[in-house]
Description:
- Helix content is 33%, strand content 21%.
- By secondary structure, it is of the alpha+beta class.
- The protein folds into two domains: 5-83, no CATH class; 85-150, no CATH class.
- The protein has a three-stranded antiparallel β-sheet. A two-stranded antiparallel sheet has the order 2-3. A two-stranded antiparallel sheet has the order 6-7.
- It is elongated, with a radius of gyration of 25 Å.
- The mean pLDDT is 81.
Amino acid sequence: MHDPLVVVFDIRYPWWRRDPGGWRYHKPLVTVWHREPGEADSNTVCTGMDGSRLSWHNLAWAARHLRHLHFQVHPAQQVRHYFVRCADCGQRMGRCQRIGTWDGDEVYHFWCHDLRHTRAVLADFQEYVRGDADPNARWRVEHWLDQHPLVPDDISGLDGDDK
Length: 163
């Protein structure tokens, strides 16, 4: 299954900005998304959208599909992200790097996510050594060991004899 969401069009800030490549629009102010009914693949149930640019055709199409539209207001999203709390340590995110999950609304500080990952890897290794690991954990440990050998392939020069 593919993503049921597709961008209908972006509403950009009404002013321009200068960068090394010349004058350009700012990032979008609002992004208008269309979600297919029944979580179907995009453009399979509601067809006829003409790309993802702001045009009269797309505006008319969006008006007919108003109940399927979702509006992503970027400035409000940035303000809301400032007050979101880390799912691991419970502190506010502020302006630090954040990592979200695909299957939920949980957000983590970069360092909290790194610590969670390290704990999960160590738990896999512990289960593997005990012999309690399920097939997935066994595969993860064996794959990691294949990618990070404990004994180097070339051991010449390690014994102190440089002949």
